[in-house]
Amino acid sequence: MSKRTFPTNFLWGTSTASHQVEGGTHNQWSEWEKAQARSLARTAQRRLGWLPGWKRIAAQAQNPDNYISGTGVRHYSQYAEDFAILTKLHMNAFRCGIEWSRLEPQPGEWDEAAIAHYRDYFQLLTQKGITPVVTLWHWTIPVWFADRGGFAKRRNLIYFERYVQKVAELFGGQLSYVVTLNEPNVYTGFSYATGEWPPQQKNPLLALYVYTNLAEAHRRAYRILKQANPQLHVGIAAQLSDTQAVAPHNPLNRLGVAAKLYAWNWWFLNRIKRQQDFIGVNYYFTEYQDWLGRLKNPVTPVSDLGWYMEPSSLERLLIHTWERYHIPLVVTENGLADSADAHRTWWIDQTMAALESALQHGVDLRGYLHWSLLDNFEWAYGWWPQFGLVHVDRTTMKRTIRPSARAYAAYVKRYRAPNADRGTTP
Ligand code: BGC
């Protein structure tokens, strides 16, 4: 017996972020890259020497150029070519970003060229039958906003509101899905608690304050966007951890896991419960921890970044999230760093099965956006990790579709076909 699972309007696509692909961005991250490139290169072996693939990446990871986003992959100018790839891969959705620092390079001054760019960009996507899922803030902020203290000052939220208001006026009628914030937990963790990302603060109390400010920023953005267009689907992209007890029979171990999940996954979502039309789920890895909170992951398989891979566990995470909130879910990021494309097809096979099982379990799942369309700038790691379904040669900017992208496209084609049913793997 065959049974239809994916709704016809299911969003099938890929995900990107402005700073990681556009090229030519000028924001607090691009400034920080220039200041930190040499020291990141110098300390690479100490930080990354343990990776199984260290020998392969050593030269690049020890080169300061690796840490400069620079020309990106020229997505800002080559977007039409990238959209044509989406069409070739049968996609009907694309998560992309608006770069705040482009739109408002100086406080209150709006850049007409940037406005025209994003207008054309969304228009072309829509013409091609591809739904834009647009992120307003993916960790980068204009330098002037950073200089005023960024999200570490509650009074600065008025600037974020003004930006959101402008986006709502300019593009609110053109869009149907908006992600206000990307992974507030990862950002506050690395930028304000561990001090690894700009502005390199190591202050847990300040981190908590920034976290609460981001929750408030989302609530205000939600109101503004819905006022401009009540039809918009507004949510955040949450980095949700699938943490498991390595000894599930041990109550202390289970308690530790519950505490981690509450602090990392649910605290923020609880604060914005009433201001979400969907929850964006970003899932990359499963982590097993012992009763002291120490990581006890299996040794293999791991991605190029050394992250333990258990893609089938997305099913458990989706079910758990759905049962907690009963708000529609969209997988807004999911993928792996795999420059040889050795594991990605397996990952996609496992993931498609996980999505289907979650749907059959009753989860209201609206979309799947693989991270990423293109090899891109992986923040403090720089350029060596390659998450792209499509490889980009950064010298020529030539795009090459990887075999795993074709495997994903075959699923999408079959699932989007009229009267699609469950069958064998394409
Ligand atoms: C971020 C992306 C990043 C990806 C892979 C997510 O946490 O939103 O920007 O590239 O993880 O590390």
Q: Which fold does the CATH topology refer to?
A: TIM Barrel
Please tally the helical runs, counting DSSP H or I stretches of 4 or more residues: 15
Helical fraction equals 40-55%
Arrangement of strands in the largest sheet: 1-2-3-4-5-7-9-10
Radius of gyration: 21 Å
Q: Tell me the total number of β-strands.
A: 12
CATH architecture: Alpha-Beta Barrel
Instruction: Kindly give the count of domains.
Output: 1
N-end to C-end Cα span: 18 Å
Question: What characteristics describe this protein?
Answer:
426 residues; alpha/beta; TIM Barrel; 15 helices; 12 strands; 43% helix; 15% strand; binds beta-D-glucopyranose
Descriptive account of the structure:
With 426 residues, the chain is of the alpha/beta class. It has one domain: TIM Barrel (Alpha-Beta Barrel). The protein contains 15 helices and 12 strands. α14 links the parallel β9 and β10. α13 packs parallel to α14. The C terminus is likely disordered. Beta-D-glucopyranose binds next to loops. The site of beta-D-glucopyranose has 10 residues, from loops.
Write the layout of secondary structure elements.
Elements: E1 11-15, H1 18-21, H2 28-42, H3 44-48, H4 54-61, H5 75-88, E2 93-97, H6 100-103, H7 112-127, E3 131-137, H8 143-147, H9 157-171, E4 177-182, H10 184-193, H11 204-228, E5 233-239, E6 242-245, H12 251-271, E7 279-283, E8 286-289, H13 314-325, E9 329-334, H14 344-360, E10 365-371, E11 390-393, E12 398-401, H15 403-416
Parallel strand pairs: 1-2, 1-10, 2-3, 3-4, 4-5, 5-7, 6-8, 7-9, 9-10
Antiparallel strand pairs: 11-12
Helix pairs in contact: 5-7, 9-11, 10-11, 13-14, 14-15
The structure holds beta-D-glucopyranose (BGC).
